[in-house]
Known about the structure:
By secondary structure, the chain is mostly beta strands.
Amino acid sequence: MRRLSLLIALALSAGAAQAQTVATDPWVRATVPGQQATGLFVELKSPTAARLVGGTSPVAASVEVHEMRMDGGVMRMRALSGLDLPAGQAVSLRPGSYHIMLMGLRSAVKAGDTVPVTLTIERAGKTETLQLQAPARAGQAMH
C-alpha cells in the first residue's frame, strides 16, 4: 500500500468551502552538482474537476507542468499550460510522463533533503494552492 505522504487542504479564499486535493507520495529527484533542474513526482486526486497550472518553490527560479512523450521514436519534453485533474480520478505525475519541473535550481538537491513546493490549482474559477514537502530521492537519469 502506498504511504499517504501528505494530505493538505487547499488554501481557500474568504472561508469559502471547497473540495480538497489529495497528494500521495510526493518526491523530488536528487541532483548532481551543477544540475540546474529536477523533477517533482506525485499522485494527485481531486474530488471535483480542477487543473494543475504550475507552482513555486524556494529552491527554484520557476516551477512548471511538463510532459514527456514519444515523438517519432524520440522522447520529447514540453511545458504545458496546465494538467487536468478529472473529478475523482488519480493523476500520476511520474518519470517519463507528466511531471513538475523545478528549474533554475539555487543549489543541489541532495538525497534526503526535503523540498518545499507550492502547487497552483485552478478550480471553479478560483486559484488555490497545495503545499508539499517532498523528500529528495537518489535516482537514475533526469527522467
